[in-house]
Amino acid sequence: MNPHLNMSGVNTMKLTSLKLSLLPLSMTVLLLGCGAGHPKLTSVSVSPSTATASASSRGAAGYTATGTFTDHSSRMLTQADGLTWATSDGSIAGISDSGNATCVRPGVVTVIASAPADLTITVTNTVQNTSPKINGSASLTCM
Asked: Domain of 20?
């Protein structure tokens, strides 16, 4: 038996074992580091603030959400920021993940954009963002 081959195999096993044992530690550090030291979202504004579309032709209106942060900076929010869209009454108008609202029948709805204030994660059986949500709203009239 070649002693060099055996020693190499032992070293490889120890290195692999070391890498695997450090994995939970590195994952913990990675999860704790998310959002740390970054500015928190303080407000969300939705644009346009009011829009009108035709319900009979399934008219649509596009919305964007801009976030303002604790360092007084602002930028457009996206799904990558945890941005979600909703309407106050889905039987009047629905809205896509990208902020495009479509009228279904006449009426007025509130369009709501929500995003987490910070990336705070809770790990149980799943990973969830447990940060409070910041909301902004606008109005859509379906005629």
From this structure: 1-33
CATH number at residue 80: 2.60.40.10
Q: How many helices (H) and strands (E) does the chain have?
A: 1, 12
Residue 132's nearest CA partner among 118, 143, 113 is 118
Of residues 97, 98, 86, the one with CA closest to residue 140: 86
Of 13 and 111, the structure prediction assigns the larger pLDDT to 111
Same domain, yes or no: 92 and 117:
yes
Question: Tokens representing 63?
Answer: 């919305």
pTM: 0.70
The residue count of the chain comes to 143
Residue 13: enclosing H or E segment and its boundaries? helix 3-33
